[in-house]
Amino acid sequence: MLEIEIDGKQLQVADGSTVMDAANQVGAYIPHFCYHKKLSIAANCRMCLVQVEKAPKPLPACATPVTNGMKVWTKSEAAVKAQKGVMEFLLINHPLDCPICDQGGECQLQDLAVGYGESKSRYQEEKRVVFNKNLGPLVATDMTRCIHCTRCVRFTQEIAGLMELGQAFRGEHSEIMPFVEKTVDSELSGNIIDLCPVGALTSKPFRFAARTWELARRKSVSPHDSLGSNLIVQVKHDVVKRVLPLENEAINECWLSDRDRFSYEGLNCASRLTKPMIRQGDSWQETDWQTALEFAATRLKAVVAAAGAEEFGALLASNATVEELYLAQKLVRGLGSDNVDFRLRQTDFSADAVSQGAPWLGMPVAEIADLNRLLVIGSFFRKDHPLLAQRVRQAAKRGLKVASIHPTADDWLLPVSARMQPKPSEMVAALAAVLKAVADAESKSVDAALTVLLPADMPAEAKAIADMLLSGRQSAIWLGNFAMQHAQAATLRRLAQEIASITGSSFGVIGDAANSVGGYLAGAVPATGGKNAAAMLSESLKSYVLLNVEPSLDSAAGERARAAVAGADFVVNLTAFNSPELRAISHVMLPVSPFTETSGTFVSCEGRAQSFVAVAKPQGDTRPAWKVLRVMGNLLSLDGFDYNDSEAVRADVLDITAFPVANLSNTLDGLTVSGSAASAGIERVADVPIYATDSIVRRAPALQRARDGAAPAAYLSAATMTSLGLNAGDAVEAKTEQGSARLVAKADDTVADGCVRIASAHETTAALGGLSAVVTLERV
Amino acid sequence: MSARNLILADLDGDRTWRLQDYLARGGYAALKKIIAESTPPADIIAEVKASVLRGRGGAGFPTGLKWSFMPRSFPGAKYLACNSDEGEPGTFKDRDILRYNPHSVIEGMIIAAYAMGCERGYNYIHGEIFEVYDRFEEALAEARAAGLLGDKILGSDFSFDLFAHHGYGAYICGEETALLESIEGKKGQPRFKPPFPASYGLYGKPTTINNTETFASVPFILRDGGETFLNYGKPNNGGTKLFSISGHVNRPGNYEIELGTPFSELLEMAGGMRGGRKLKGVIPGGSSSPVVPADIMMDCTMDYDSISKAGSMLGSGAVIVMDETTCMVRALERLSYFYFEESCGQCTPCREGTGWLYRVVHRIEHGLGRPDDLDLLNSVTTNIMGRTICALGDAASMPVQSFVKHFGDEFAYHIEHKTCLVPDDVQREGSKIYVGPSC
Ligand SMILES: Cc1cc2nc3c(=O)[nH]c(=O)nc-3n(C[C@H](O)[C@H](O)[C@H](O)COP(=O)(O)O)c2cc1C
Ligand code: SF4
Ligand code: SF4
Ligand code: FES
């Protein structure tokens, strides 16, 4: 510990602290621009100059290490004189046209200029003008306003993992720019808007939409991935105008993924359903709630009565709230059916028979920092879980070693020290090989049920992963979305569990959606032999209730799912959006609130239940789905639908104060495992692209224009391409048992040989169905 | 005190840069002795301390002391870098050392590496001198072939390899930490210090950086003794030093003299004032050192302490001589333009301030000066100095402050009369180059 005196206050700080750290500790504010607690020290703005005893000149607080006995004055005449001098320099070339700047009112330069700037400029020369840069559809630039603090540059390099911005040229000609002709394509790019202390980088979608003081700030939780990022949703006249991070060190820190930040555009899109609608023949009529609900209840009752409860089922969105999921399953069960599911992209449900709770990450997110070994199985990690990957990236800088078992080697922008790249059909064998390697190395026996899977000989890569795990002090093994959607997901889980137990690793499932955990806790899965999502979508039931589900895009079955629902006699659709597909398959559409217009709860991957309230009034006649379900329960004369508020619904499911929540378990003891049948032919590796995950992001135009929003293509390694006689750029017809899609072949050596990566959750590929089917590719 | 060639000794042959020539001049004797006697590294550093060799790159920091900052038992790589970036206007000594006596630098670096336990070194050569770069590469090849460089030097257990790194012509890359960034392949921008290179240098490893001339002085010190070297200069200012004399003298060029030699003698060596005109002022240590008016300068001896007492700096030893035909406003305008263009742009006071200074001086020179401009210049320089990441901020400010201080009347005249105090035709005559109308 070091003794330091700041502005007359004595304190002790840890070795290695800077004067800025110390000042923060005593609450002495030192003006600054380039300093940011999550970024490296650049010491370039010089705004934080302070007076230090015995130092002949003022020193930058952000970069000056504390020495024992140091005396610092942050507001002395000398300090303030230095700070004002710097402020003058910052302002001489700054436009000072705050009234037409989008940052006006929330600008650090503007704020500090009030305290440190003069009212009149001594600079009478011409001001610098810098041409704007095209950074892509999300970040707008006004580069003349840039004060060269390089926060944005350091962010891309240090947090996002790829230096997409740099400071080119010298001196006054310095410009922040992306690499020539490039845009900033990081899935975390929006954070540079928050970091930019001035109006040089602002939000393109939000640009000039409102002034900061016109916006109400309300807390919420992101519905897009299983992290549960905390949001500040900014609302004007009940319209969401902007989303910013709500800092929560344990979850999203001070960051947001672009998906969390810009998806709100989808909430305001033209295809919002704002009135209840009833189908009459081929045409749709708007109606009032009472008519629609009575119609829905009466018909549902009739169809269920006629066809039997087992011919009725509910398909629920995995980012529906706990309250919605709970009431929906209650309704299904109240009508005598057990056909309910929210895991529409899952294909192997054999885990359900032995599962002891909701699969979860198995550890708190904050503890990722303490890991020194991590094996990620079956994951498009960076795009599926942008901020989780960011945490792992930071941990990797401190010595965390990461391994991957996955058919593609897409760049996670962090070092991956060991890797296996099996084809989808080889995933089980790959994991079994790692299991054998760890068991051999530790001389431990493997559970008898698994020995059939163990290979005779072992690839070197498996050994390398085993060695990596075993050399760790604190290790974790996670199953990604691809693994959980795999045709042998349960076997993969069981194998991973065994590897974890032998290596002493923490073991978990990342989960693909905001309520991947909450859905289980709400009981939105079959419990007594009812049909799971795959079963409900492989053959038509007579009636369905859908909750925010677009079958062809939200399910593993793709187009076939749409057809299954279309084959029903009666479909009640609770949906925030209207679309041709939904009109074609539904009989009544009830407009329900997206997360911003309802109260509700998500349970994140780490088992954290986070409740939120509506941040805006429901659009049009939209109503919160939990209320709609409550009324439907009542209209159907079902018991247990007398809730006054959503908290009461939640209380039936979980204890909000518990962390982690109860009833979590990844253990699959007693599972009957299945070996893998090697497949002949090219196997599809299907990702769910980052901006295709759910109905809200799919409707967010700016995200769709981003590089990650590009339409699917057929990505193949050069070797695979050659073996098929294809060339990059060829138009190809991809065919599966289910259907076909026209795509462009693109070279991508990150894809395992013998595989083709074709994204799902897109209308152009929905016909292919099945996430990892055998595909034939022909040039057209 | 007078001319004395140590670095430039016996450089009258036509192939002085060849290894053979260097050996014949007694080159590599110091290294061979060290290797043969397995001289303890600490003894070498002690010898360099005894010589009171001060860094020739500008700051004049005692070299022996700098070497002693390198951690002795550091696990892992340590680096050595030679600063041949020489970009300061007026300075042109290092290129001549490399051109005519490259092995003195190589030998000096090998000895330094031996003393500090560095396994690898780089010579960062200014980007706009190609012949010198090629010649240095040749010299490295000769040294390697002769077993003087590389693995197991002269059969000993000591290995050291040295590489030439060609810069791209940015002045800022001469700042030692910007130089390291540049070697690492990054944009040449100074780092904030601390940490200093001796603890966190090239690739984050302990590193020592010295100027070309500093290294070139080392073989003599080790061969003939630190004492001998010191005695050629004066106390606290050991040895000889190269001065690059430019401007209004009859024989501009590099002169090696004993530190402490009167400026008047140096001026005479350079052939005296051109056309017998009157001396007006001298920039004694490279363009960033404050200008010294003639009368003060004529009383100075050429050493760190004397020049410092005169309110300037010995710096890199670039002596820019200006006679009475010089318009000091125009001279400052040129200098300010240099710093404005060469600021790396990283830190606020320098990025914004150098442009401001230049524009104001430019305006004065072009007849658009305002009465309070001189106060403004002084105030802006005060706001830059001591508040930047590297010394370029100071380097840009000192000329402005000193020109305004010593030649304020010329600036005032300019502002009032919107033209030079020194008439254009006189300027033209003095410089023998076309001087356009100033206003
Ligand atoms: C802007 C700037 C430019 C510099 N340029 C040079 C240079 O060209 N050559 C040089 O030797 N030192 C230069 N220096 C000084 C170096 O930073 C460093 O002090 C020197 O190389 C140390 O060597 P020495 O101790 O042998 O003098 C420069 C410093 C600054 C601030
Ligand atoms: S664009 Fe903004 S964040 Fe980036 S350097 Fe300029 S002022 Fe800083
Ligand atoms: S003082 Fe000038 S050259 Fe030095 S770091 Fe700052 S901007 Fe760059
Ligand atoms: S905040 Fe310290 S220099 Fe910018």
UniProtKB/TrEMBL annotation, chain A:
InterPro entries the record matches: 2Fe-2S_ferredoxin-like_sf (IPR036010), 2Fe-2S_ferredoxin-type (IPR001041), Asp_de-COase-like_dom_sf (IPR009010), MoPterin_dinucl-bd_dom (IPR006657), Mopterin_OxRdtase (IPR006656), Mopterin_OxRdtase_4Fe-4S_dom (IPR006963), NADH_UbQ_OxRdtase_75kDa_su_CS (IPR000283), NADH_UbQ_OxRdtase_ferredoxin (IPR054351)
Cofactor note: Binds 1 [2Fe-2S] cluster per subunit.
Domain 2Fe-2S ferredoxin-type: 1-78
SMART domains referenced in this protein's UniProt entry, alphabetically: NADH-G_4Fe-4S_3
Matches recorded under Pfam families: Fer2_4, Fer4_NDSU1, Fer4_Nqo3, Molybdopterin, Molydop_binding, NADH-G_4Fe-4S_3
Entry function: NDH-1 shuttles electrons from NADH, via FMN and iron-sulfur (Fe-S) centers, to quinones in the respiratory chain. Couples the redox reaction to proton translocation (for every two electrons transferred, four hydrogen ions are translocated across the cytoplasmic membrane), and thus conserves the redox energy in a proton gradient.
Leader sequence segment: none
GO biological process, one term: ATP synthesis coupled electron transport
Enzyme Commission numbers on file: 7.1.1.-
Domain 4Fe-4S His(Cys)3-ligated-type: 78-117
Family: Belongs to the complex I 75 kDa subunit family.
Cofactors, names only: [2Fe-2S] cluster; [4Fe-4S] cluster
GO MF: 2 iron, 2 sulfur cluster binding; 4 iron, 4 sulfur cluster binding; metal ion binding; molybdopterin cofactor binding; NADH dehydrogenase (ubiquinone) activity; oxidoreductase activity, acting on NAD(P)H; quinone binding
Lineage: Bacteria, Pseudomonadati, Pseudomonadota, Betaproteobacteria, Rhodocyclales
Listed name of the protein: NADH-quinone oxidoreductase
GO cellular component, one term: oxidoreductase complex
Keywords, alphabetical: 2Fe-2S, 4Fe-4S, Iron, Iron-sulfur, Metal-binding, NAD, Oxidoreductase, Quinone, Translocase
PANTHER family, per database record: NADH-UBIQUINONE OXIDOREDUCTASE 75 KDA SUBUNIT, MITOCHONDRIAL (PTHR43105:SF13), RESPIRATORY NITRATE REDUCTASE (PTHR43105)
Major enzyme class: translocase
Catalytic activity annotation: a quinone + NADH + 5 H(+)(in) = a quinol + NAD(+) + 4 H(+)(out)
Residues annotated as domain 4Fe-4S Mo/W bis-MGD-type: 215-271
From TrEMBL, chain B:
Domain of life: Bacteria
Pfam families: Complex1_51K, NADH_4Fe-4S, SLBB_2
Catalytic activity reported: a quinone + NADH + 5 H(+)(in) = a quinol + NAD(+) + 4 H(+)(out)
Start and end residues of each NADH-ubiquinone oxidoreductase 51kDa subunit iron-sulphur binding domain: 329-374
EC number: 7.1.1.-
Keywords assigned by UniProt, alphabetized: 4Fe-4S, Flavoprotein, FMN, Iron, Iron-sulfur, Metal-binding, NAD, Oxidoreductase, Quinone, Translocase
Broad class of enzyme this protein falls into: translocase
Biological process, per Gene Ontology: cellular respiration
InterPro entries named among the record's database cross-references: ComplexI_51kDa_subunit, NADH-UbQ_OxRdtase_51kDa_CS, NADH-UbQ_OxRdtase_suF, Nuo51_FMN-bd, Nuo51_FMN-bd_sf, Nuop51_4Fe4S-bd, Nuop51_4Fe4S-bd_sf, SLBB_dom
Cofactor: FMN; [4Fe-4S] cluster
Gene3D superfamilies: 3.10.20.600, 6.10.250.1450, NADH-ubiquinone oxidoreductase 51kDa subunit, NADH-ubiquinone oxidoreductase 51kDa subunit, iron-sulphur binding domain
An MF annotation (GO) of this entry: 4 iron, 4 sulfur cluster binding
UniProt xrefs under NCBIfam families: nuoF_fam, PRK13596.1
Entry function: NDH-1 shuttles electrons from NADH, via FMN and iron-sulfur (Fe-S) centers, to quinones in the respiratory chain.
Membership in a protein family: Belongs to the complex I 51 kDa subunit family.
Protein name: NADH-quinone oxidoreductase subunit F
Gene name linked to the record: nuoF
